Each structure stands twice: as structure tokens, then as C-alpha cells.
Amino acid sequence: MLRYLAIGLGTILVVGIAVAFFIAAQHPPMRLMPAPQVFLRDGTNLFAAQPTPPADTRMEVFYATNRLPVGPASSRIYTVAPSTDLHLGVSTVRAGDAGQTWEWLYGLSTSPSAEDSERPFLNLETMREDATISGDELSPQALDWFARVDSAIGKAADPDVIIYVHGANTTVERAAGQAAQLMHFTGRNSVVVLFAWPTAENFMRYPRDLQTALGAAPQLARLVTLLSAHTRARNIDLFTYSAGGTVGSEGAAIVGRAVAAGAPAPRLGEVYHAAPDVNFRAFVADLEDYIHIARRVSAAVNLNDSALRLAQVVTRSSRAGRPDMAELTPEATDFLLDASRDNGLEVIRVRPENMDGLSTRSHTFWYDDPWVSSDVLLMLLGHLPPADRALEMGKGEVGTRYWTFPTAYPERLEDVMLGLRDNPAAAALVSNALTPETSPGPEVARP
């Protein structure tokens, strides 16, 4: 009997491993995320800030990567191997099938979508590499790439540039899709630069991804510094997701340490870590190095995040998106308490039990949940503090302060939107695009 039981358990284990490998090998393109709550209001939305509508469903997103490239520069393929160089270019992402219209995409982007199947795939059409940075000197091609980023910022309604850093086990196509939809739902008013670091694109090699993430951090720090030096961007905003938090946390710390050593301070603006998959102790240590040069640091966390629960088992350490305060020294605890109360750190606790339709164990909440994605946009575009974004304050473990979404968030968000016209601290882009008294309405954004 025990022999048959052992055989049965062995079979289940083999099947389980096979299924895990199968799932790890599947990398479909991203689907367009559900419309953020701010796009589901009657009247106006961020697309109204566009003087003319897009020609079709394509989106162009600047990118920088330390992945090793192959193929012609006009249509690069980036491998999972690290490169010692920083490669710069432009990606083209198409929402849906070829031939779909902007009116079709606008409709999907401004109405609730009940089923995933109703939302189109974000297909990567091309990655055109324009320049490579190998040493300290910038080539004419690299300078030209920064000049084109600068020109795009000059034409954009949002004066900041947003660097998006993807997570582990992510193909270039999925990473480009995530960056493209972030840009799309700013109303296409922001310049987004994808930083594509070399993940193994296989969950079974997750520990290796964490090593390459740390290896990519100096290149990200270099990108932040160069964008600050060679563009007119008001701020360089840094948006990281999942294990991209390991890249972004260490990268921002490298920038902070360089400033402390006498380097010019880059215009580091919002630093937002969504579901950060980064060693918690390292995250706090890094934060000490860069919080003083950032406009604000935000961390959005779900304490029931199943992906980070698994990551904790693999790494044997808690993750910043699912932290264990007992791991910190008393000095680090004091620093974190002070930072969360008065010194530039905002912890946003995502509580799925208060949010309609969000999985309790969600790791993808920043783009899967309309409330969270709305809050991201208000933070990035309006630079509003949490209380002015309709969030509520709470007190956590050992006195840490956090912010969360009230159950009446949609109603409170409506009050926020109506009040923006009287808030001089709000960005003109958000105020003009989202308040009925100052906006011409959504029909202007349609062809």
C-alpha cells in the first residue's frame, strides 16, 4: 500500500513539475488593462488633453536595455543574456489586430470590461535600436536619441518622463506592453521609457533573475542620470513592478550614493514600487540612500500577495511588498517609522477585501484593478498626496503609517476630481483634463 502511495505521490510531483514548466514557458502578450476608475466617469478623461487623436492603435515607447541584442538594428531581438552596454531605441506596440481603429480602442479604454477576452492583446511590432552606450562618452547617435526624448517631452502635456521597470519572468513583448499601456492611460500625455533588464523568462530560474536584477541596477542609475542631464524633463519618475523593484531600489540607491559623493543631483521625482519583490532589509537600506533626493517614494503592497509569498519561500527572506518588520534592526525600524510618518515614504496598502473583483492574492493589482491604476495616474500626473487622492490613513505594525482605499472610493474620487479645479497644487494636466468646467469633453479626443 505504501509503495503504491509513494508511486502516486511521485506521479503527482512529476505532473506538477511538468505543469509548472509548461506554465513558465507560456508568455502571451499583455492584454490591455481594465480602464482606470478615472476613465469611467461621466464627462471627461485624460484623452481630452490631446490636441489631436492618434491615427491608429499603435503606440511608440522609448526603451533602454542591457539585454544582449541580435538581428538588424531596425528590428532588434533582445535575448535573455546580459549585455555590458546600454542599448537605446524605440518600440512600437499595437493594441489588437491590424486594422483596428482608434475609435474602437477609445471605447475599450473608457468603459468597464467584464471579461479578459474582451480586452485586446498588446502586440510588439518592432524594436528599433538607435544607439549603444559602451563607455563614458556618448556617441552622436546616443545624443540624438536623448534629443528625441527631449523633443517628445517638449510636446507632451506632462513635463515629466517616466521610467518603467518590469518584473521577473517577463519577455520583452510583455514588458513593452506594460510600458505602453501605462503611457496609453496617461491619455498619451506622458513620455514613458521602458527599462528592459535581462530576465530568464522562466520562473524556474527566478533566483538567477534576482542576480541579473542587481546587475542591471547600475545601468538604470546611468539612465536616470543621463535623462536628467540631456532632457528638459521637470522630473525623472521611476515606476517599478515586482522584481523590477530590486533593479529600481538598488539603482536609485546608486544615484543617491553618487550625489552624496558630490555628483550633481538628478531631478528624481516620484519613485513608485508596485508589489516590490526586493529583499526587505535591502529595500530599507537602499531607501536611506535615496529618499532625500526623490520627490516622494511610494510602495503599494498587498499583504496576501501569493507571488511574493512564494518568493519569500525561495529566497528565505521577506519581500518589501510583503514585509516582516521583525527582520529589521531597531535602527532600521526607527528609520522606516520616521520615513512613513513625515519623511517622504508613502505605503499604500491594497486590501482586496474592500475592493470589488480584485483577487485576494493579487500580485498584478497595479494594472488589473481600476482603483489602483487610477491612484497611480493621480500620483504620477498630479503629484497629489494620498489624502487628496481619496485614500484613507491607517496605522500598521509597530506604528507605521499606511494609506488604503475606502469602500466608497469611486464616490470619493468623484469629489477629488471636482475639487481639482480649486487645488493650485494639482498639475494643470489633471485639472484641465478631468474637471468638466475646464475640459471640452471626451468627444474632442475622438476622430
Automatic annotation (TrEMBL):
State the UniProt keywords alphabetically: Hydrolase, Membrane, Plasmid, Transmembrane, Transmembrane helix
* The keyword Transmembrane helix is annotated on this UniProt entry: yes
Query: What GO molecular function annotation could you give as one example from this UniProt entry?
Result: hydrolase activity
Q: What is this protein called?
A: Alpha/beta hydrolase
A Pfam family this protein belongs to? Answer: DUF900
Which residues span the membrane? 6-25
What organism is the protein native to? Paracoccus methylovorus
The answer to whether the entry has keyword Hydrolase is yes
Q: Domain of life here? A: Bacteria
Annotated SUPFAM superfamilies: alpha/beta-Hydrolases (SSF53474)
